[in-house]
Structure formats: structure tokens, C-alpha cells
Amino acid sequence: MKMHKDMQKAMQLWIEALGGPASAQARHNLVFVEATDRNGKEQLCYDNYDATTQTGTLNLLVEYDTLHLHERHTPGGASSATVG
Q1: 10 phi and psi, to 5 degrees?
Q2: Max Cα separation, the chain?
Q3: CB 43 within 8 A of CB 61
Q4: Where do runs of H (alpha helix) occur along the chain?
Q5: Helix and strand counts by DSSP (H, E) for the chain
Q6: Taking residues 65-77, what's their average pLDDT?
């Protein structure tokens, strides 16, 4: 998928700009991982999220300091990000 490839390129660009992977030498601890459950199912910051009221139940399977990027495959294309 094009979006997946674009995300991979963007993550690599960030790592390079930060001086390499997370380490004492690079002086950062930013890592990119896919938030999934034990079965490999994608996890969102909120369960039962309602975009209209912007409410939902906090998903405790996702780390608190997570920036969640979610790919949406819509005809016009859309992306979103939330801090969990």
C-alpha cells in the first residue's frame, strides 16, 4: 500500500534527522512501533471513540505517551493522529 510505504519513508527520515535510532549517542528515545494486542490487532488510543463528541474509553493497552497514526483508506484520502 502506498500509505504504508510513505509512512515507512517518513519514519526513516525522522530517525536520520534525529541522528540515528534511539540511543545515548543519538540523545533521543523516540521509537516507532505498531500498537497491537496479543493477536496482532491494531489498537487505538480510545475504544468506542465518537468523533462527533470526541469522547471514548481510554484503551489501557496503549502506552500513555503514544502518538497514534491511523491509516484510513477512503476515496479522498485522509490521515489523522492523536496523542494517547
Answers
A1: -65, -40
A2: 44
A3: yes
A4: 2-17
A5: 1, 4
A6: 66
